[in-house]
Amino acid sequence: MNVEAHLRQQHARALLDAVHPLRCGDLPEPLLQRARHSALGRRHLARAAVRNAPEVFAPDHERWQPWLDDEPWLQWPQARVHTFTQMLGAIALGPALRMIVERNTVLFVRGVLGVDNWRRAQGMNPWPGAAPDVIRQMGDAVLQRCGRDTQALSDAVYERGKIEFLGHAERRHASLAARLALAYAQAPTRAKGECWLPAAAVPALLVEQQTLDAEASLAIAEGTLQ
C-alpha cells in the first residue's frame, strides 16, 4: 500500500470512528463494536453513514488536510468528542457553577459533572475580565430548571457543550460543522450566534489538548523504549 492510499484509509477509519452509532443505522452496541472491528462490518457502517450524510462522509484525506493541525478533533473517536463536549458545557456554565455555595448542591453538581470538569469550571475563566452577568444568569436558569434531576443536568451540560463546539466549527467552515454534527445522535438545529463562550475559547482548549496529547504520546514512547 502506498503512502497516499494509507492516508486515505486512515482518514476513512478516523471519520467512521467519530460517527455516532445512531448515524450508522442504530445497531445494538455489541453488534456495533463487532462491526467496527471487521472489514465487512466497517463497510456496512460506512454505507449507512454515507446514506445519512453523503456530502460529509467522503473518504478524501485531502479535503480535510488543511484543517488537521488546528482541528485535532477531526481524528478523534466519538467517545473522545463526547468527553470534550461535556467539558465545554461545564466551562460555559462556570459562572453559574461558581455561585453555588450550598454543600449538598455542590456535591450533587460535582457528582454529575465529574471532578475534573467541576474543577475546570471552577478554575477557568475564558472571558476577558469578569464573565458577563448575562452568561451567569442564563447558566443559573439552566441549573434551576434541572434541579436535582441527574439526567436532566447531564443532558443540559452536554447540550450546551454541543452548541459551543458546533459554533466553533461553524465559525471555521460549514463543512467542519456538518462533519462534527455526525458525532452526535442529534445536533442542535441552530448553533451559530448562540454560543456563551468567547470565540477564542475553544481554539485555546484544542491547543491545550494537543499539547497534552503530545506529552502523553512522548511519555508512552519513552516508557516503551525503557
Plain-language structure description:
With 226 residues, this protein is mainly α. It is built from 12 helices and no strands. Helix 2 (29-36) packs across helix 3, helix 5 crosses helix 8 and helix 10 packs antiparallel against helix 11. 27% of the residues are buried. The mean pLDDT is 85.
Quick synopsis:
The chain has 12 helices and no strands.
Q: Which features characterize this protein?
A:
single chain, about 230 residues, mainly alpha, 12 helices, globular
Oligomer: single chain
Pairing-aware structural class of the strands and helices? mainly alpha
Count of extended strands: 0
Rounded to the nearest angstrom, the distance between the terminal CA atoms is 31 Å
Report the sheet-strand fraction: under 5%
Topology, pairings included?
Blueprint lengths: L2 H16 L10 H8 L2 H14 L8 H4 L13 H15 L1 H4 L5 H11 L1 H9 L9 H14 L3 H23 L1 H8 L19 H25 L1
